[in-house]
Amino acid sequence: MAHSTISIFFFFSLCFFSFYLNAQTTPSKQLQAFIFPIKKDGKTNQYYTNIQFGSNSTKLNVVIDLGGNFLWFNSVDYFNAASSYRPILCGSRKCQIADTDGCILCISDLPVPGCTNNTCSDFALNPFTGTLGFSGLGEDALHVRSARGAHVQYTVDDFPFQYSDPVLRTGLVGLAAGAVGIGRTGISLQAQLASAFKIREKFALCVPPAGGDGNLIVGETAYSIPFEEISKSSLFTTPLVKNPVSISGNEVIGNLTHEYFINVKSIKVGSKTVLSLNKTLLSINKKDGSGGTSIRTVRPYTTLHKSIYKALIKAFVRAAASKNIKRVKSVAPLGACFVLKTVTSSKTGPQVPTIDLVMNKKKGVFWRFYGSNSMVRVSKDVTCLAFVEGGINVSGPTTSIEVGGYQMENHLLEFDVASSKLGFSSSLLLHNTTCSKFGSS
Ligand SMILES: *[C@@H]1O[C@H](CO)[C@@H](O)[C@H](O)[C@H]1NC(C)=O
Ligand SMILES: *[C@@H]1O[C@H](CO)[C@@H](O)[C@H](O)[C@H]1NC(C)=O
Ligand SMILES: *[C@@H]1O[C@H](CO)[C@@H](O)[C@H](O)[C@H]1NC(C)=O
Ligand SMILES: *[C@@H]1O[C@H](CO)[C@@H](O)[C@H](O)[C@H]1NC(C)=O
Ligand SMILES: *[C@@H]1O[C@H](CO)[C@@H](O)[C@H](O)[C@H]1NC(C)=O
Ligand SMILES: *[C@@H]1O[C@H](CO)[C@@H](O)[C@H](O)[C@H]1NC(C)=O
């Protein structure tokens, strides 16, 4: 009896010992997270990151597309060194996960990225121009940096992407080779990292104003100070809603089921609810997918359905007038502009009436925009409300509110895709910090 107790004890301590060794060499998998630096281009208002891809670790700038399906790019540097490129074959498991639109037969003397036979294929979308490119998907090595400690590099050998036609790059910030999707698909960046490293499907996004730095952190990690505290105790939480309707036919402008929607119930300006909003527009129409509120990094400013836009402008102009802020001629596409010197400034930017997107009035869940997120300076003397009318050149169903990049800047946003929840902070300026300080401990 004593003998077997000892051997059991010995067995357990061996297990413990090997687990301990393991933990020393690879950081605890449950806490693994990966970091992607974000910059904003001031001219195009696009947010992009840098990735290292393929056997030669080609460095590529790619635009961040929050509702995008997958990684796509075109790059001669990668092409010339693409020795480890492999097509994703039709009928393969990866093809099923990708949930794609077809199978392509492309025959060339030598199979090359973008032209291989019997290949699982889908549409890549340029989210700025609406240009679509249908071609085969492949996989290659994505090199990622741990968000923890010494930023050790890891490699995902079979990361799916599309090597796209060069025409798809038109409209992207000059130095970008393509875009990386972090939408609700099986082959988006966070979905693939979650499956490769067995971590929770979750990411935190902190986008900077032009000239600043921000980060995308995929996975779970301990953030740096003061973000750990902000994340733990001062985030508002709201459900991420799924739009049940994708777009089909010729009016494809992306796939609405892959975008992140939130349930905005009302809008406040100053502390007053904007009364004349058409409530039907605020919810998603289950028949055609129109309406509702999405969050999109590829919109420079929040776009609003015409009637919501008009109501917001009216309420804002009135509230601004009561603060003696003087209105001047509008500067298209911005519909409400003011004399800069009639606006005082504060820690949270120009002191103008706040704008709240209210998700849950009872529980006090609302996303508040102060001047730093609501006003944009267009000239030496003029500052304008940074919201625009949406749906102007869109033929398909339109989303009523698309929260754009300018409004997201200097807010910590945690997309917990696994449990379909969005956590968002108030303006980081209120916490005496900015996205440039967002990192991990
Ligand atoms: C791979 O990278 C190395 C080092 O950067 C470079 O010298 C080499 O030319 C690259 N190979 C190709 C095929 O581009
Ligand atoms: C392309 O793939 C199809 C389906 O697997 C196969 O029938 C055909 O022979 C292939 N063609 C070439 C040229 O490899
Ligand atoms: C949109 O995505 C959903 C879920 O991935 C898919 O079932 C649907 O076919 C897609 N629609 C289009 C038009 O690609
Ligand atoms: C509200 O919007 C819906 C959807 O666009 C429209 O059908 C309806 O007529 C609008 N209601 C009013 C009162 O304008
Ligand atoms: C809509 O399209 C027209 C013609 O292509 C273009 O001139 C106009 O600037 C576009 N408007 C917006 C708001 O994108
Ligand atoms: C931010 O700084 C101000 C002034 O230094 C201080 O009073 C305030 O408590 C700080 N707020 C936070 C959240 O740290």
Automatic annotation (TrEMBL):
Belongs to the peptidase A1 family. The keyword Secreted applies. Gene3D superfamilies: Acid Proteases. GO terms for cellular component: extracellular region. SUPFAM superfamilies: Acid proteases. Residues 47-425 form the Peptidase A1 domain. One of its GO terms (molecular function) is aspartic-type endopeptidase activity. It is found in: Secreted, Extracellular space. Keywords: Secreted, Signal. Its main location: secreted. The keyword Signal applies. This is Peptidase A1 domain-containing protein.
